[in-house]
Specification:
single chain, 298 residues, mainly alpha
Amino acid sequence: MTPKQANWILVSVSMGWGISYIFMKLCVDTIPALTIVALRFGIAFIVMMMIFRKKVFHTDAKTLKYGSIVGFLLWGIFITLMYGIKHTTASSAGFLISTTVILVPILQVFITRKLPSKKISSGVAIVTIGLALLTIGEDFTFAFGSVFCLAAAFLYAIHIIVTNHFAREVDTLQLGIFQLGFATLFATIGTFILETPVLPQKVIHWVAILGLAFICSAYGFVMQSIAQKYTTPESTAFLFSLEPIFAALFAFIFLQENMGVRGYTGALIILAGVFTANATFRKRHGIKMMKEKSSIVK
């Protein structure tokens, strides 16, 4: 797989995740959060195990270990996100999660121990302004749901970086499938401890759960693991910045959501900051690729 093909796959994943906010919004008020997470990942895990049973049955301890780590992060991401969506709009949640694109290069700074570039610093400043418009109310208090969405974005950034590292050491298909299994395990345990499990009662709720399972989980997270082996964490985060655009579009079409002038202004500013911060990483990655090709020719 070429980096270009991997990036196109990640674009399709981003589109799938964009519609996930609609599915979550449809059932979050009637089904407990942990139950939704357990159902979506459980169904996805069973389906992927049936399709790739010959491949996943032959795995090793290292893959299971890595799968448990990314599965735990996945569980954390969607528990916080479910509570966030319950107290905010699908559109706002999508743009708040897009701050992952800023958090990835910031966390990479701590890993590489190099100071951020001017473009990253500018991007962070721009995103901060956009977040203020999107999350701080007229009474200057943070929206309750926004805090959970930002926590999900932070965990998501860690997940991207960790997945990118693990994908170079183990089979990516196995990693992607087993993370779904471990996320299911953690969510199921939490469901029986903290909630009263409730199955969907209406057709629309089952449609939402199955959409989350097949499109957003089975396809999305497995293909993310596979594609990330052939691209960089920064490129992955950059392409995932398309997710809130798809989320806002689908929310407008299917839920008739309107964030208002203040909300859309904040969202546009966040996107501007995201593109500003990641332009430097794309440029550096391109220069690196050109140097590698030049050395091969020589």
